Amino acid sequence: MNSVEIKNLDLSFGSVKVLQNLNLDIGQGEFIVLLGSSGCGKSTLLNCIAGLLDVTGGQIHINGKNVTWAEPSERGIGMVFQSYALYPQMTVEKNLSFGLRNAKMPKDEIDARVARAAEILQIQPLLNRKPGALSGGQRQRVAIGRALVRDVDVFLFDEPLSNLDAKLRADLRVEIKRLHGQLQNTMIYVTHDQIEAMTLADRIAIMKGGKIMQLGSPHEIYNRPQNLYVADFIGSPSMNFIKGDLSGGTFRAGDMVIPVDGYDFAEGTKREGAAIFGVRPEHIATGDALASAPIRTQVTVDLVEPMGADTLIYSSIAGTPVHIRMDGQAVVRKGDTVEIGINPKDASLFDPDSELRL
Amino acid sequence: MDASRRPNQLFRNLNAKLASIPMIVTALVVFVGGTTWTVVHSFTNSRLLPKLNFVGLDQYERLWSSSRWMISIENLAIYGACSMILSLLIGFTLAALLDRKIRFEGAFRTIFLYPFALSFVVTGLAWQWILNPDFGIQGVVRDWGWEGFVFDPLNNPDIVIFGILIAGIWQGSGFIMVIMLAGLRGIDEDIWKATRVEGIPAWKTYIQVIIPMMRPVFVTALVLIASGIIKLYDLVVAQTNGGPGLSSEVPAKYVIEYMFRAQNLAQGFAASTMMLVSVIIILVPWAYLEFGGKKRG
Q: For an interface test with B, which of A89, A97, A134, A148 has the most B Cβ atoms less than 10 Å from its Cβ?
């Protein structure tokens, strides 16, 4: 049985369609990340699942129960917000227990749950403090604790780490992953940060304009993007795209000829004509890695960005600007000529009209 | 000029210092000076003109033995307590209702705030007509056929202060509503979402989460209401002029009457000094609790 099922979900505000005919099945204990740029509808979708927004059409099932019109509190969900949304006048302990006390739960049970949540999140020393006296990371832990004490099946995270600084974000990210491993709950996590998405998710749903562009494991999304949007969105710096023509098993762009024998075409898409050849900066081989790349060419370096662990080179192939990621130890200067290699197996080909993967 | 020398502190930010002089002078002369002058003269027997002929506490003895002053104090206490509670209650309720994402919110907001644009004299006159037994509400209801209906607060000495209270609330609660609404709009949307996910009913959220979060807004509203209560004067003059008899007298009216009508300046000064003292008695402990003593955590 799936933990969360979303069936033909529609949501519009007046004439603006925010979500359109959206379908998503989330398995028991799965960590799903909804990823997209702002305005893509990812937070809206999460609010629909939580019941904070009334849907226009379609159904939402949680644990096999149709909860499309159920109150948020009756759906068996816990939610963590970007702004923490803690009650500032209550101590941490009261924040955690407020919902339970309101539900008239026996005192022992409340104490046990609060104690357990505090232990899991290591916030026992903070229980008597007010949120104003906590740091951002501690506040977010309390917010997670508030979802935890509800003892629910599905956790919803709405950009929980966006208000934290980079170091804390990385720490808390690991902690959320550990928490998921420990609790094995279903988690739905909204973010615009692709690193968070790649590191946390079992599956990522990349959204754009209220639609899911691709749903798949981080590995799949990264290596086999189903369309140009996903290919461009994931990866930093993003994938290099070279426009050209496919004919007789080779891709031609200007004087560049790439045989695509090794390329794994999606079924029934192998054809002649215009195409876009996409290759990630880190998949363009240089130095020692050249040996395994069947296609080689020389490029001139326009700009060098040393980043420590690796070095980014700006250059161009067949008149198209490209980024190339080199080993950080390599010594290159502006104007140098560098030999590069491309392996068609690592590349992606797209149809320029439908923007879909070939 | 020798740039290495430390410049004279007196001439730093000279423009700002010059610009603030008028306000400092006003504050010193009008507020501090005027207050001191009033208090000093309240110990004299000045009648038409201020004289420095001290008579000790005579004016205060006369003040506290005057039944008119006692009625004034009692009326102000009733008006103050009711106005404080009702303004906050009505203002907050209206704001909470407006904040529920209703339609035509702008129109409602304007309607509720509109009385505030009227002066107390206009408000008082309008309510004097509405509460007039012959032409107002009582007259209309009797014309409908309910002959025995009685609603004449302005003509009944026992409840006349409540007739004034109605007008005061009508005039002031729209403004309190606007302040409360601004406070409610400042509450993070996520707080509401969090309480909905936890299944806390809206009324309970207001009482246990939202109102505690709006403490500074409530303090602002209380200060505004309190200052309105203390200076209650024009509303009474326009509605009843203190009548029937002396039953709707208030302290501010007492002060004005003795200073400018009865030509007994010192008696008016004594009354206004008592008003100042009572404000200080209320304000000082509160300010101590709010700003001093305990550290807020």
A: A89
